[in-house]
Amino acid sequence: MHFIILILTTFMIVTGCSQESGPKIQTVDDCKQPPLRNMTSEERAKSISESINGIDSATVLFINDELDVAIKASNMNLFRIEAMEKEVFQKLKVAFPDTNIFVTDDSKFYEEIEKIGKKTWPTEKDKACKQRKEIKRLEEKLKS
After folding, report:
1. Backbone dihedral region of 135: left (phi > 0), alpha (psi from -120 to 50 degrees) or beta?
2. Are the C-beta atoms of 89 and 49 separated by less than 8 Å?
3. Structural domain range at position 71
4. How do beta strands 66-73 and 100-104 pair?
5. Structure confidence at residue 139 (pLDDT)
């Protein structure tokens, strides 16, 4: 009996103290090309979003093949906000079928996207990549 406990204890110590504790996460620079804004598509996506009944305003960023949309609705329409988000998503998916689309009504995301949209998009690769990573960070924060 003592022999089995000794073997189990030794096994737990050896496996618990091994140097490899799981898969290592490698960060890969996924920004090989500088992210580019598509202003024409942004305007089209904005008009599609704002055409939906109940949406007061929308702000849009279309970078490479990713479309980020933030919408604002009046207080009377807040009960329908999820349905409006879904409708915006569906209409944009028809208009831009090969695009990753993210739609939200989050006011912080709206303000950030609007602020970024008013600025001139950086032409330097590093600055453009940093800006895109910031947008993705905000997007991921909202998804979780």
Report:
1. alpha
2. no
3. 39-143
4. parallel
5. 87
The answer as to whether 93 is a domain residue is yes
Asked if the structure places residue 82 within a domain, the reply is yes
- 3-state DSSP call for residue 68? strand
Contact 68, 41 (CB under 8 A): no
- The order of strands in the sheet holding 100-104 is 55-63, 66-73, 100-104
The pLDDT tens digits for 73-118 are: 877 777 888 899 999 999 999 999 999 999 999 999 999 999 988 8
- List the one residue out of 64, 71, 63 whose CA is nearest residue 46: 71
Which CATH number does the domain housing residue 128 bear? 3.30.70.1350
**Does the structure show a pLDDT above 90 at 41?**
yes
Buried b (16+ CB within 10 A) or exposed e, 78-108: eeebeebbebbbebbeeebeebebbbbbeee
Beta strand 66-73 with 55-63 is: antiparallel
Q: Classify 140 as helix, strand or coil.
A: helix
More confident residue, 15 or 74: 74
The number of helix segments (H) and strand segments (E) in the chain equals: 5, 3
